[in-house]
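Extended Data, record Troponin I, fast skeletal muscle
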Amino acid sequence: SSHLQKKRRAATARRQHLKSAMLQLAATEIEKEAAAKEVEKQNYLAEHCPPLSLPGSMQELQELCKKLHAKIESVDEERYDTEVKLQKTTKELEDLSQKLFDLRGKFKRPPLRRVRMSADAMLRALLGSKHKVCMDLRANLKQVKKEDTEKEKDLRDVGDWRKNIEEKSGMEGRKKMFEAGE
């Protein structure tokens, strides 16, 4: 049993080692991702927000302010539109997942009924108009021997088992059984 315990301890140690290695890897990946995002942000800002150079005259300053206000307004509108789109999409997602949840809860398998159906009818149902070949299943069946059919006839002659049970139940049935036994 000590050998088994050593094996277990080794397996646990290995699991712990793998877990810490995976966590380390994940942490490095997260750091890389954050650094990449920062670089992307800096590039975007450099492209879309050139460094501000303040003009000398009052009129040029006012022009700059008007341009900046216009830019702020357009960016705000864009942000608002994006937020609305996001909210709409989130709502649609929630509705769909709710529908999924409801469907999972409601669906019950219907009780399956046995249906007598020929092979042709089955193929027609499955294949639709494509079904041209007529299958003769009887040709594939083994020939039935005479003795088998006679056995079945004997079984039929016995009749319905319910009647036999009814006849043998109660005092009448016991009396008949007793008389038959004598």
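Summary. The two ends are 72 Å apart (CA to CA).
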